[in-house]
């Protein structure tokens, strides 16, 4: 009898344990399906509208975005799966990107209830914000009618969470609450390169500074192509997406259209900005690193000519290239605001490099690493030409900095602008 009762007790105990485990499993399944349905509902909701003041708007877009055509899916190469903002919990997004999350309330306070407007892009309005820590940042808010949408928001957070370089704009935080999608960047006090090339509010950029800006941008793209793992293709290089800090160091911004090279090389829709788009990409719908090189070539010609691609820049370039002389005289397309203050040989070298970048055959275009080396060599040649001048002959408005290539350091002279150039040495080392 004792053995029978013991067996009965053991059987009942095992049954209870199994029952409890089944109940727990069922509870987890119910909660999982509820969360899935809630996420699906939240992802279909559009962002609420933020009131924007029209007065005080700067015509210069501090952080701009451009897009052509409808949205396309964004995938992350980290785990080979699609990471959709609507279907990915914020806690997971933070852990995956490493970017801190700001509360909507804090950003609302920092932007004086979103009234400190400093720019407007396709993504949405951009505000200057003073955080409680005293840090000044730029806050970019996804507009309700944004052509780029939440997928580009997801791309910027995921990519910039792992991309860190002195020539890339740093993403310092994001916010995804109250139906809003907000990106928080390091504030770039000098605005966009486009504003300095075309706005009458700024004095003309000197030729010397234009070459340094070109080198900064090239180094940022070289990092994306050769330093990032996996490599990243920016897909929207243009003057309004190049931002300048207080020392006039250039940084590449706006990664909403960027893609990791190993993911989705073939695009269903053409995305980017007309005038900067690689013709090969337009015809094949396939983008590569050489697509960025083409856009960079257009940017170089923009620095030379001070002319927007939408103003017939490339037609202007082709006419100059059809010169009947043995050598192309690129001086005829030079920005009149330079007032002839440039070295003709140096300008022709930069223009020749730009012309190689916009070659119709992608394979014939140089890599970004090659471009960086050419620009460094041009700046070294500039130094050698001036090396015979004694230091005592240098004017008070000049500062000596270094360009480093391998183990060799050669001082280069950079002319100061009215802006502070305290960090000039860092910008080219």
Low-confidence stretches: 37-95, 396-401, 405-429
Look up the CATH topology of the largest domain: Transferase(Phosphotransferase), domain 1
Largest beta sheet: strand ordering? 1-2-3-5-4
Share of residues in strands: 5-15%
Mean pLDDT: 76
Distance between the terminal alpha carbons, to the nearest Å?
Answer: 89 Å
Q: Determine the number of helices (DSSP H or I, runs of at least 4 residues).
A: 12
Name the CATH superfamily assignment of the largest domain: Transferase(Phosphotransferase) domain 1
CATH class of the largest domain: Mainly Alpha
When the domains are counted, the total is 2
Report the principal-axis shape. elongated
Task: Spell out the helices and strands N to C.
Answer: HHHEEEHEEHHEEEEHHHHHEEH
Q: What profile does the largest beta sheet have?
A: 5 strands, antiparallel
For the secondary structure, the number of strands is 11
The helix/strand class is alpha+beta
Instruction: Give the helix level as a range of percent.
Output: 25-40%
Rg, alpha carbons: 27 Å
GO molecular function, one term: protein serine/threonine kinase activity
Organism: Hibiscus trionum
Pfam families: PK_Tyr_Ser-Thr
Protein name: Calcium/calmodulin-regulated receptor-like kinase 1
């Amino acid at each position: 009898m004792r053995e029978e009762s013991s067996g009965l007790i053991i059987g009942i105990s095992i049954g209870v344990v199994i029952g409890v485990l089944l109940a727990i499993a069922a509870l987890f399944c119910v909660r999982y399906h509820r969360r899935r349905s809630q996420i699906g509902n939240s992802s279909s909701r559009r962002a609420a509208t933020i009131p924007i003041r029209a007065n005080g708007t700067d015509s210069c877009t501090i952080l701009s975005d451009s897009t052509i055509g409808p949205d396309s899916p964004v995938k992350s190469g980290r785990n080979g799966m699609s990471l959709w903002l609507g279907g990915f919990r914020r806690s997971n997004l933070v852990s995956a990107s490493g970017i801190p999350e700001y509360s909507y309330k804090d950003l609302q306070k920092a932007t004086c209830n979103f009234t400190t407007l400093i720019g407007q892009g396709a993504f949405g309005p951009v505000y200057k914000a003073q955080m409680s820590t005293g840090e000044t940042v730029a806050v970019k808010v996804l507009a309700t009618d944004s052509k780029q949408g939440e997928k580009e928001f997801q791309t910027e957070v995921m990519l910039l969470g792992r991309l860190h370089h002195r020539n890339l704009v740093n993403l310092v935080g994001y916010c995804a609450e109250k139906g809003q999608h907000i990106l928080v960047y390091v504030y770039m006090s000098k605005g966009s390169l486009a504003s300095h090339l075309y706005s009458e509010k700024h004095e003309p950029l000197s030729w010397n500074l234009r070459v340094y800006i070109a080198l900064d941008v090239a180094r940022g793209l070289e990092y994306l192509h050769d330093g990032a793992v996996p490599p990243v293709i920016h897909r929207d290089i243009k003057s309004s997406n190049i931002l300048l800090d207080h020392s006039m160091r250039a940084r590449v911004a706006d990664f909403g259209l960027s893609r990791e090279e190993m993911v989705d090389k073939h695009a269903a829709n053409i995305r980017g900005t007309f005038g900067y788009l690689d013709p090969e990409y337009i015809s094949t719908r396939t983008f590569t690193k050489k697509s960025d090189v083409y856009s960079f070539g257009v940017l170089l010609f923009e620095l030379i000519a001070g002319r927007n691609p939408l103003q017939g820049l490339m037609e202007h370039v082709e006419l100059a290239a059809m010169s009947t002389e043995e050598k192309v005289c690129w001086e005829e397309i030079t920005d009149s605001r330079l007032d002839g203050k440039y070295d003709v040989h140096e300008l022709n070298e930069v223009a020749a490099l730009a012309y190689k970048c916009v070659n119709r055959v992608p394979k014939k275009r140089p890599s970004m690493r090659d471009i960086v080396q050419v620009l460094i060599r041009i700046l070294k040649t500039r130094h050698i030409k001036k090396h015979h001048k004694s230091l005592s002959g240098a004017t008070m408005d000049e500062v000596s900095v270094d360009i480093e290539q391998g183990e060799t350091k050669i001082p280069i002279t950079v002319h100061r602008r009215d802006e502070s150039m305290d960090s000039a040495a860092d910008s080219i080392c």
